[in-house]
Every structure is written in structure tokens, then in C-alpha cells.
Amino acid sequence: MEAYQLTATQVLASFKDGSLTVEDYACSLLSRIEQRDAAVKAWAYLDPEYVMKQARLLDQTPMEQRGPLHGIAVAVKDVIYTEGSKPLRLSRAVFNSPIYEGHAPKVDAASVAILRKAGALFLGKTTTTEFAATTVGPKTSNPHDPARTPGGSSSGSGAAVGDLQATLGLGTQTGGSTIRPGSFNGIYAFKPTWNAISREGQKIYALLFDTLGLYARSVDDLELLADVFALHDDAPPAEAPFQVRGAKFAMLKTMVWPEVGAGTAAAMEKAAALLRAHGAEVDEIALPPDFEDMPHYHRIVLHAEGRVSFLPEYRTASSKMHSFLVGHVENEHKYTRAEQLRAWDSMAALRPKIDTIAGRYAAIITPSVPDEAPKGLESTGSANFCSIWTGLHTPTVNVPGFKGENGMPIGLTLVGPRYHDRHLLAVSKSVGQIFEAEGGWDRTSSLGV
């Protein structure tokens, strides 16, 4: 197996036993990127010389001083600041906007500072939709079919991890910008409980929703990141591994089920059958009627928050902004402050209710996306199956394993109560082993490795 194919957990073990150096690992990843970049185009900025310089310095770090992510390659979405004294091709934060062309922040985002201290190897900045706010695709293609979108807005990070060009990735989510690319690219995607990880130093769209998202090809790797970001539940962790046999799961279609396609519908049906075959109890549930307006509440607050976030750009360079963002600032839908408050307060009232519902189960299983990644790069796809959970602040994990009618990956979302992030990861690991083994989709054959 080539070094670029290894998970973070495997790479760390290889560093520890001396069978792999950070320099050789970095060379393997850069070779993979060189081979695949023309097709996938995941990178906004990448400086191979800087990557190799980091790798050599990390190899020189004494064993006792090495961090928990020593040498592990991370892709960083280009709405997250990386400190400007570093080489420009890494440090630029342009947000896929001509307004910020050449912009170089003077500080690391909080997430980057934490990863840097943990010893991470930063590969570069990955593509995003404009300000991580539109559905207009950047240049990036889906690694499993270059004619299809990788999703967005975390397009490049999802595609880079999905194509084995990066081991871990940072994204963000305001609607479905982490979970949707996770599904489309066939990888694990984790949106933690809202504000469980600092968002300082990333471009804000909607402060009430924005959440740092994490990408990996295994739950073990997500757990490494959860440790580094100090994610802890109140309850002590259950004895590992989580036992699917005897556990109780909920299958939830949600109020946006009419938008579902054949691939996701089949994945939901197969997931329920697999869990039952492995000894789990599976209930089909529906949310109470007061949740029906969640998509509408999310939309109102998104526009209201966008009015605030994009006012500086509007006042200084509105002609360079996408019309969707201009519409936020100009309140094109004429949402009133009373509607905004009603949406805020209604979502706040629903959050403890969803905690209670989700707390009855090991996890709620629900669609990540309407279907497999659609053809074309013009749109990154619908976030409607994700946005309700973003608004409710619950942790969610996209678990891969299924495929659509065209052989493209489809994942399903596991949901837990707020601040049950570690529990949800433990459940996702056991469920993921079943879905990946028996769901019908094979990552390696899809990528030809």
C-alpha cells in the first residue's frame, strides 16, 4: 500500500515504528496530487516546497516532543485563516472572492493554531464556493466522476480527502457544506455540536449556524481530531467498541423527504435491513408537527445573518459579489425582524426537544443528500437534508457505504443529541463498519487504487 493511501491512524503507527518518515509520506501525497490534480482540481493554493520544508522539520522533532497529529497531512478550506508570514500560497485566504484576491491574514484561525501545535502537516488551501455561501461550484470535480460535483461549499477538502490527496480535511458548515461533500465523495464527515470547536479566524456567514467540519476516511481518524479539539461528553465513554446488537436506532425521513431520489431511498431501506440483520432494533419515526417549519426557520435566519456578515463587502465592493449575497444584504425576500425573532426563538425551543428524541436511540439515521452527486459543476447540490440539523445544533456524521444508480457514493447521516459528540462517533464507527462492508460501494475500485 502506498503511503498516500494510509489513514491518519496508520500513518502515526508507521512513524512510530520507523517504517515511514514524514518526508516520504509527504512525497507520496504530493505525487498523488500531481497525478490527479488536473482531473480533481481540489486545491486553491499549494506550495510543494513549503510542504517538504515542514516535513523535514517534523522529522527532526525529538520523539518526546511530537504532538498527537505529528506529520499528519491536513487540507484547509480557503475560508479559514492561515498565518500570513508563512509562504503566500498557503497563507492566502481569498474565500473564492475577487474582493480578497491576494489577501494574507496575519494570524492562524483557532482551529489551525490547535492543529499546528499538535504537529499537523499543512498541505495547502482547498477550494470553496464564494464565501462558503453560494451553491455555485468552484473548479473542483468529484474524484469518482469528473463530470459530477464534489458538493460544497467545502468542495476541495471533501474531494482531496475522497481522492486520497489529503489524509484529513477541514471544512465548514452553515447548511450542508460538510456533510454533503462527505456523501458525494464517499468519506466520513463530522459536523460537531455547534460551537464545540472555536470558529475564530474563519469567514463568518451565519454565526448562529457556522460550524467547523472535519473530514477523514475512518472514524478512528475523526476520533484523533476530536481528542485534539478537546471534544468531551458529560457521560464517560461506553466500553468500546459500541455494540450494534441490541442497540436501538431511529430511521427518520424528515419533512423534506419528498425531495429524495432513488439512491438515497434505497440506502435508507438497506441501512435498516443491515442493522436489523446485525441484531439492532430499528424504529421508523417522524418528528412532531412543530418541527415542520425548520427549513423555513433556517432560511430566514440564514438571510438575516447574511445581511450582517456581508455588509462590509457590499458597502465596499458590491459589484464583485454574487447576486445571491447581494440579495442577503438588500433583504430581497423582505423578511421582517418579527419573522427573524420568531425563527430564532422557535429553533431554540426545538433544540431540547430534539435532544430528548435523539436521546432515546443510539442514533437517528437520516438522509445526508437527496441522491448521488448530480452531473455538472455549476451547482454543488441541495443542502435541504442537512440544514435542519445545522439549525438544531446537533452533532452529525456522514457514514459512507452505499451507492446510487450510477455507482456514485451515497452516505447516510447519524444524528445525536447536542454535546454527545463522542458517543455519536463511537456509534458511527460500528455502524460504518457494517455499511462499508455490506452497503455495496467500494472506494478503492472507484478510484482505481
Note the topology.
Elements: H1 8-17, H2 22-40, E1 43-46, H3 48-59, E2 73-77, H4 88-91, H5 110-117, E3 121-126, H6 155-162, E4 168-173, H7 179-185, E5 188-191, E6 211-216, H8 219-228, E7 248-252, H9 262-277, E8 281-285, H10 294-309, H11 311-317, H12 323-329, H13 337-358, E9 363-367, H14 384-392, E10 396-403, E11 409-415, H15 421-438, H16 443-447
Parallel strand pairs: 2-3, 2-4, 7-8, 7-9
Antiparallel strand pairs: 1-3, 4-6, 5-6, 5-10, 9-11, 10-11
Task: Describe, in plain words, how this protein is organized in 3D.
The protein is α/β, with parallel strands linked by helices and 449 residues long. It has a single domain (3-292, 340-447), classed as Amidase signature (AS) enzymes (Alpha-Beta Complex), CATH 3.90.1300.10. It is 40% helix and 14% strand. The chain contains 16 helices and 11 strands. The chain has helices at residues 8-17, 22-40, 48-59, 88-91, 110-117, 155-162, 179-185, 219-228, 262-277, 294-309, 311-317, 323-329, 337-358, 384-392, 421-438, 443-447; strands at residues 43-46, 73-77, 121-126, 168-173, 188-191, 211-216, 248-252, 281-285, 363-367, 396-403, 409-415. Strands 1-3-2-4-6-5-10-11-9-7-8 form an 11-stranded mixed beta sheet, with helices on both faces. Helix 10 (294-309) packs across helix 12 and helix 10 (294-309) packs across helix 13 (337-358). The longest helix has 22 residues, at 337-358. The termini are close together. The mean pLDDT is 96.
